[in-house]
Amino acid sequence: KATELVAENTRTGMLKGKISYMSPEQALQDDIDRRSDIFALGIIAWELIAGRKLFSGKSELATMQNIVQGKKQNLLDFRPETPAPLLAVINKALAVDKNLRFETALQMRLAFIDAARESGLRIDQDRTSLLIKTLLGEKHRARQKAVDDALDRTLVTLSIAHPPKMDLTTTTKTRVRTASLFTMFGLFIGVIITAIVIGGVALVFVLGLFDKPAQPPTPVYEGPPIVISIAAASDEQILQQEYQPLARYLESHLEQPVKFDIHNSYAEVSRRLLSGEAQYASLPPNTYVQTKFVEDKVEILAIKQFDGSSGTDGYLIVPEDSKAETLDDLKGSTICHANKLSTTGYVIPRAYIKEQGFDPDNDFTPHISGSHYQVMRDLLAGICEVGSTYSGAFITADEAGINTSQLRVFNITGRTPHDAFCSGPS
């Protein structure tokens, strides 16, 4: 984070750091201690669960005023299912009066663990670490390289600025300097580990980590393939990986090979299922309703689950640096949708916009991107000012090379079932 902190909201001789992660006492330039870091960790935990920034304003001053006055949004407005014990820990960390916060990160860590147990959440550092590596592996490696390079430059600078003298005193000083440097990094690592444990609680809550049994070798089957038609809501390679367990299951039970039939259009997936070109299809809720209306023999065999949840949240997302705080601020802008048959990428967000008193066609300019990932790419490219997608696509977009750190969740438009795995008339 060091290179990012230098670039954002730094004023020579004044406040340094990311404004939206400052504690009230830091914003007021009062004396700060480790309880200031507790406040920042509370913000991170809140944002991991809510999927949006906690403190923001139309200017840096407005943001700091919100922090100092404790004008924070209610987490339950965005995640009403947040367990009360977990919410209590986060709220204590976010107390404006530092005397009401946890005294140490250890206290906060233990409080999170107790809250997790009370809420039925499982905490496992190894699994959390594996998840973080999966989601953020490339970013972590790039950041680690930047830290290593910065450390190399620091060591070189120290050696030039303080050339060693050839006596015993110099040797002692050099050792002390080295020990201090590594002690400092040890403290940094300790703080990071603490943050990962705390973040792990939030990640477990959001993503529902669970053990997955190892898969046996896949046997080879002969004969005509069973065709499963899927809409390319995300990148094809990711879809193939996502549906491999289902393919293995069907092959082992039906003893026939399985072939994936991936298309960019929900309408084409529906057509192929109805025509018999595909025996099965994965259909979003709205597409299923439309398909069932045409052919009553289309049946739902199962509802897709994401780590134990059969539902997903629809998101409106904007660039991280967007000044918009309400839909009224976005009026007149272009909105990117995934597909006109998409539930979270078209139907739900348009209904949400109507509920807020706006016309989705006259108050906004619709743009069809073609897929949920493309919505995010178009948003980053400046093609639109706001986009509609769903939580699963937003969480996994990094795997497709999309820098979601440059995006933020603007609003949750509603909750809908995951895709339905359906059989066709054939």
Task: Write structural notes for this entry.
The structure is a single chain. With 426 residues, the protein is of the alpha/beta class. It has 16 helices and 10 strands. Helix 10 links the parallel strand 1 and strand 2. The N terminus is likely disordered.
Task: List the keywords.
Transferase(Phosphotransferase), domain 1, D-Maltodextrin-Binding Protein, domain 2, 3 domains, five-stranded mixed sheet, 16 helices, 10 strands, 14% strand, disordered N terminus
Strand order of the largest sheet: 2-1-3-10-4
**Which outline best applies?**
globular
**Integer average pLDDT:** 78
| Helix-residue proportion | 40-55%
Query: If you consult CATH, what is the topology of the largest domain?
Result: Transferase(Phosphotransferase), domain 1
Topology at a glance:
Elements lengths: L1 H6 L16 H4 L6 H17 L9 H9 L6 H4 L5 H10 L11 H15 L5 H37 L6 H40 L18 E6 L4 H19 L3 E6 L2 H10 L4 E4 L1 H10 L4 E5 L7 E9 L7 H4 L3 E4 L5 H13 L9 E4 L3 H9 L5 E5 H6 L10 E11 L2 E4 L3
Parallel strand pairs: 1-2, 1-3, 6-7, 6-8
Antiparallel strand pairs: 3-10, 4-10, 5-8, 5-9
Helix pairs in contact: 3-6, 3-9, 6-7, 7-9, 11-12
Task: Give a brief rundown of this model.
With 426 residues, the protein is an alpha/beta fold. The chain is built from 16 helices and ten strands.
